[in-house]
């Protein structure tokens, strides 16, 4: 895992204490894209956290964006989010 992925992962884990946090770097699929020129990456995350319980999709995404904070301006160009509460996951 590179240091950028580690910083993003750590930020998500610190803020949301997830039971699952799968972060993927999709930047290679976006090579040549305008966002790639700035050096920021394209990522996807699947995250399961009790903090999402009872929240709608927009509120969950806000929590994720708040967790990565300033990284959205420097390290992340795009972030695809799948945010679930534990009650929404198959047992």
From TrEMBL:
Similarity comment text for this entry: Belongs to the BolA/IbaG family.
Matching InterPro entries: BolA, BolA-like_sf
Family annotation (PANTHER family): BOLA-LIKE PROTEIN 1 (PTHR46230:SF7), PTHR46230
Species this chain originates from: Undibacterium seohonense
Entry-linked Pfam families: BolA (PF01722)
Domain of life, source organism: Bacteria
Protein name: BolA family transcriptional regulator
């Amino acid at each position: 895992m590179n240091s950028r992925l580690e910083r993003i992962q750590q930020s998500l884990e610190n803020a949301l204490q997830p039971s699952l946090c799968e972060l993927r770097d999709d930047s290679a699929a976006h090579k040549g894209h305008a966002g790639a020129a700035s050096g920021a990456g394209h990522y996807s995350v699947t995250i399961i956290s009790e903090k999402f319980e009872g929240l709608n999709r927009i509120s969950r995404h806000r929590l994720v964006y708040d967790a990565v904070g300033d990284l959205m301006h420097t390290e992340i160009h795009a972030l695809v989010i799948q945010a679930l509460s534990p009650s929404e996951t198959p047992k």
